[in-house]
Amino acid sequence: MLISNYPSVTAATAVVLAVLQMLLLLFAANGRGRYRTGLGDGGNEKLLRRIRMHGNLAENAPMFLILLGLAEITGQWPTAIPLFALGFILARLSHALGLAISSGPSPFRFVGVIGTVICDLGLAGLLASRLLHDTSWLPMKLF
Fold first, then answer.
1. In the chain, is it the N or the C terminus that has fewer CB atoms within a 10 Å radius of its CB?
2. What's the pLDDT band for 18 if we cut at 50, 70, 90?
3. Per CATH, the architecture of 8-23+52-132 is what?
């Protein structure tokens, strides 16, 4: 039995991102074997792109999951939370696809970056508005 405020959307999103992270890790590891490079990228652009596909998700997913989890446990925005989760997953898939295709500019990478920024800042904005409306967390009344 789950507790009533269990962050199910955040948990499901974490599962999807963990699977994606492991797939990208295996893709990078496969590239290391293919290009015979144990550390770094050995100056190989294709291997560098594989490493960055994995690294970009690793850099962006933790902050998103923290924001998503905090927003979800407030119990507010029940429609927006899954939309942010889906948007972030699609943005990160788009970014990885863009890097798989090319190291140069790509519409997929652009969508991935913009989608990630929108999702992170959108959730941060929701949380900031919540904090502004409920100032009981402040040590003294400022407002």
1. N
2. very high
3. Up-down Bundle (1.20)
- 8 Å CB contact between 35 and 44: yes
Q: Which two tokens stand for residue 17?
A: 């991102």
State how far the Cα of 13 lies from the Cα of 93, in Å rounded to an integer.
Answer: 13
Other beta carbons within 10 Å of 47: 20
Q: 60, 87 in Cβ contact below 8 A? A: no
Structure confidence at residue 44 (pLDDT): 72
The candidate with the shortest Cα–Cα distance to 94, out of 65, 117, 68, is 117
Sign (positive or negative) of CA dihedral 136, 137, 141, 142: negative
Sign of CA dihedral 99, 104, 108, 112: positive
Q: At residue 132, does pLDDT exceed 80? A: yes
* Rounded Cα distance, 126 and 63, in Å: 15
